[in-house]
Structures are given as structure tokens and as C-alpha cells.
Amino acid sequence: MSERTVTMRGAPLPLVGPELKVGDRAPDFRLIQRGPDGLREITWDDFEGKCVILSVVPSLDTPVCEKQTVRFNDEVISLPANVEVLTVSMDLPFAQARFCSEKGTHQVQTASDHRTAEFGSAYGVLIEPLRLLCRAIFVVDADRQIRYVQYVPEVTDQPDYEPVLTVARELAS
């Protein structure tokens, strides 16, 4: 078993990749997003000059992931304009778009790591045996430096939102 684990209902699950820390440079990523013109690849270049909250979830079609995404969708309105929220999961981009349409979560962006799981490996959030991402939050400043990290130890628990929002507000002001 991997040295790093999270639990799901108390059962340990191994994580692939490094444990990122505050001060680390946010790794590159290539994720897939469904836009008005079909599928497109997104990278850090799409967030140039922005503070980004990376909200990582196992699957949008689960109650805790839904709550997390809806919460950030509601909160982003009160954050400075240069703060973006990107929710990343292994869900297919079409499922992510359906979720956003059904739940009205149009203030956050969603993107999928389903093709390669490279994001999951680079950010240390890949639960390889399940091919899911664990629950985690990263706040990344405009220079791509990680300013806040939260790996949620139990996948079925919600993250602690307040420190995430505090850091994002401080960075964006």
C-alpha cells in the first residue's frame, strides 16, 4: 500500500503522487472541459493573472461533492473578481456539464481528468484502485504558487471552507 492514504468510510485507500505543500509551484495540467463549442483542453494559461481555488472531488454525482461544488458556486460571488473556482473530477465532461445545468452551478468551472489522470498524479490526489480523485482543495496565486492546501482525510467528509475562502480573499485584495 502507498505511504499516503485517505479513507472512505474508514477503509484506507492509497494515493498516487506527491503531497503538495504551501510554497510549491502548482504543477502543470491539461484537463478537458465541455464548452459551448464542444470539448476543449484547458491549462494554467487559461487562468493567467487569476487566483484559482482548485476544488477536487471524487464525483459530482455524490451528495458531498454536490454540496462542495454548490457551496463554492455560492461563495465565488462574494470573492474578488480575479478569483476563479475550478472543480476537478474524473467525471466525463458531459456529466459535469449536465450537473452544472441541473444544479445551476454556473459561477464555477468544471474540468475532467478522465483521459490521463495526470492531474491526479501530479497533485497527489489520485486514488488509483478506484480511478477517482480524493477530496482536496488548493489555492493557487496568480504566479502559480500554492498558498493553501487541504487534503481531506476522509473522502466522505466536506472540506473546511473558511480557511480556503480567507486565503483567496487575502490573495485577491
Give structural notes:
This protein has helices at residues 63-76, 93-103, 118-122, 161-172; strands at residues 5-8, 11-14, 31-35, 38-42, 51-56, 83-89, 109-112, 126-127, 132-133, 136-140, 146-151. It has 173 residues and is α+β, with helices and mostly antiparallel strands. The protein has a single domain (5-172), classed as Glutaredoxin (3-Layer(aba) Sandwich). The longest helix is centred in the middle third of the chain and has 14 residues, at 63-76. The protein is globular.
Q: What descriptors fit this protein?
A:
alpha+beta, 173 residues, five-stranded mixed beta sheet, single chain, Glutaredoxin, two-stranded antiparallel ribbon, 11 strands, globular
Write the layout of secondary structure elements.
Blueprint: E1 5-8, E2 11-14, E3 31-35, E4 38-42, E5 51-56, H1 63-76, E6 83-89, H2 93-103, E7 109-112, H3 118-122, E8 126-127, E9 132-133, E10 136-140, E11 146-151, H4 161-172
Parallel strand pairs: 5-6, 6-7
Antiparallel strand pairs: 1-2, 3-4, 5-10, 8-9, 10-11
Concise summary:
The protein is an alpha+beta fold and 173 residues long.
